Amino acid sequence: MVRPHLPLNALRAFEAAARHLSFTQAAIELNVTQAAVSHQVKRLEQQLNVTLFKRLPRGLLITAEGEALLPVLRDSFDRVADILGRLEAGQVRDVLTLGSVGTFAVGWLLPRLADFQARHPFVDVRLSTHNNRVDMAAEGLDYAIRFGDGAWHGLEAFDLCEAPLTALCIPRIADALREPAELYQQPLLRSYREDEWPSWFAAAGIATPAPLLKGIVFDSSLAMMEAALQGVGVALCPPLMFSRQIATGAIRQPFDITTSKGSYWLTRLKSRTPTPAMQAFHDWLLREVA
């Protein structure tokens, strides 16, 4: 429940004083007198029955109670400023908060995102990347794009596209390879999923026991591809997400052999009611991948 007579001026005075740790600097920012800021903060302390600052000869020291209040106020003021900005010129702007596994964001989404913005100019996209580990509720995400089998508790998942993995490397290494088994002589870059390279070799028809893999382990295909571009070894990555590197010839696919370990999915909390911006992005994305 919202408390009546919320002392907005006093809250603003406290927030400014807490940032500057000075009543004088807060007064300059708010274009009021130093005495007015001090009075507003004192009024707030009396109303809350707490001490927010310790007054020192050379400034202020924020108390534990003040530190607890400050981030809540900053977030609230930022939200108000955001809403006012979206109402500018009488046009309501809608925010879409999107998280995406970095490989999909860089390799597929970013080259196409301008089209979504052109079709929906009043949607502000806020994009963050992750390495397939994400807490949608804690991070306040409308959608998260991730890789897997589509089975996540409490989430609704929409299948975007399968992304088979294959061996990718620089031309110098590719030219030296004649048969898949020769890859065992190369450093094999890999993810934390230990079954990916064995699955690829099985798809290549290599039934002999594989030697112990001794390659660098990455938590991101983007970092793995960068290592491959620098000639560190052979990456096992989805060529669909690195089509630009393949098209320029910087990276080659030495063998027409792939293995599939999952798909990319658009996910949202089942408890999250889709907003107009969410629905617009959902429809656009599924149309694009189709």
Portion of residues in beta strands equals 15-25%
- Got a strand count? 11
Strand order of the largest sheet: 4-3-5-11-6
CATH class of the largest domain: Alpha Beta
Helix count?
11
Averaged pLDDT, please? Answer: 90
Within CATH, the superfamily of the largest domain carries the name Periplasmic binding protein-like II
Inertia-based shape: elongated
Helix percent band: 40-55%
From the N-terminal CA to the C-terminal CA, the straight-line distance is 46 Å
Level-2 CATH architecture of the largest domain: 3-Layer(aba) Sandwich
Integer-rounded radius of gyration: 27 Å
Notable characteristics:
D-Maltodextrin-Binding Protein, domain 2; Arc Repressor Mutant, subunit A; alpha/beta; 290 residues; 19% strand; 11 strands; 11 helices; single chain
Briefly summarize what is shown.
The chain is α/β, with parallel strands linked by helices.
Description:
With 290 residues, the protein is an alpha/beta fold. It has 3 domains: 8-88, Winged helix-like DNA-binding domain superfamily/Winged helix DNA-binding domain (Arc Repressor Mutant, subunit A), CATH 1.10.10.10; 93-159 and 263-289, Periplasmic binding protein-like II (D-Maltodextrin-Binding Protein, domain 2, 3-Layer(aba) Sandwich); 166-248, 3-Layer(aba) Sandwich (D-Maltodextrin-Binding Protein, domain 2), CATH 3.40.190. The chain is 42% helix and 19% strand. The protein has helices spanning 8-20, 23-30, 34-48, 64-86, 102-119, 136-139, 171-175, 196-203, 221-229, 243-248, 276-289, and strands spanning 53-56, 59-62, 94-101, 123-130, 143-148, 155-162, 166-168, 190-191, 217-218, 235-237, 263-269. It has a 5-stranded mixed beta sheet, with helices on one face. A hairpin with a 2-residue loop joins strand 1 (53-56) and strand 2. Helix 1 crosses helix 2 (23-30) and helix 2 (23-30) crosses helix 3 (34-48). The longest helix is centred in the N-terminal third of the chain and has 23 residues, at 64-86. It is elongated and about 80 Å long. The protein starts with 7 loop residues before the first helix and ends with a helix. The mean pLDDT is 90.
